[in-house]
Design a protein that fits this description.
disordered N terminus, two-stranded antiparallel sheet, alpha+beta, nine-stranded mixed beta sheet, globular, about 20% helix, about 190 residues
Length: about 190
C-alpha cells in the first residue's frame, strides 16, 4: 500500500498535506511523517482485517480500547460487539508501540455510508495531535475503499468541532449510547453532491 501524502502537523496550525508517495515497509503498512513543534517523527499506519492481526497486536488493540472506552470513561458496556470481525483496523504505530487506532466498517448496502469508529489515542501519547493523523488516514482509507459512499460516525458532543474540521456535519440530535451522549455525523465523498 502506498501513502497518498505525508502529513505535517505544527503546533496551533491545521494539517498540511504534502503530495508525495512513500513506500510502505510491508503488506498493509504505510509510513506517515509527522512534524510537530519542529521535531520530526515517523509513524507507521497499518490497515488490516481482524484475521490479519497477530495475536499479541490484537490484544494490544483491544486492551487500549477497553482501557479508554470502558475503564477511563467509566462506562461498562460490551466493547467486543461482534463488529470487529468484518471491520478493518487502522493502527498508528511507532516501532512496535501502538499509539492509536480506528475501526472502519464497510457499507452494508451500496447506498449506505462506510463508518469510522472506535477512534482512540493512547493516554501516554495524547497532546501530539495523533487524532488528526488517525482521522486523516481513516478518511483516506474510506475514500480509497468506498469512493462512492459517504462516511458516518457517532461522536461524543465535545468532539463535534474536531470532526467538523474534517468535513463531517451533525445529522442527529444528541442521544445516549451506553450512557454517554453522542451525535451522528456524516461526511459526503467528493464524488457526491452535498
Amino acid at each position: 500500500m502506498d501513502v497518498r501524502a505525508a502529513v505535517t502537523v505544527q503546533a496551533g496550525k491545521p494539517l498540511e498535506m504534502m503530495p508525495g508517495q512513500l513506500e510502505g515497509p510491508g503488506a498493509g503498512e504505510v509510513l506517515v511523517e509527522v512534524k510537530a513543534t519542529g521535531a520530526a517523527a515517523t509513524y507507521r499506519v497499518d490497515l488490516r482485517s481482524l484475521d490479519e492481526l497477530p495475536t499479541r497486536e490484537l490484544y494490544d488493540l483491544l486492551r487500549m480500547r477497553v482501557d479508554v472506552f470502558v475503564v477511563e470513561q467509566n462506562c461498562p458496556y460490551p466493547e467486543l460487539d461482534g463488529k470487529d470481525i468484518d471491520a478493518l483496523h487502522l493502527r498508528l504505530l511507532e516501532g512496535a508501540e501502538l499509539l492509536g487506532a480506528a475501526r472502519i466498517l464497510k457499507p452494508y448496502e451500496p447506498q449506505d455510508p462506510s463508518k469510522i469508529g472506535r477512534v482512540v489515542v493512547s493516554p501516554e501519547h495524547r497532546g501530539k495531535r495523533l487524532g488528526n493523523v488517525l482521522m486523516s488516514e481513516a478518511i483516506a482509507a474510506c475514500e480509497q475503499l468506498y469512493p462512492e459512499n459517504p462516511i458516518a460516525l457517532s461522536a461524543q458532543p465535545h468532539l463535534r468541532r474536531f470532526y467538523e474540521s474534517f468535513g463531517f456535519i451533525a445529522v442527529s440530535q444528541e442521544y445516549l449510547e451506553d450512557g454517554i451522549p453522542h451525535i451522528d455525523m456524516v461526511r459526503q465523498q467528493a464524488t457526491q453532491p452535498a
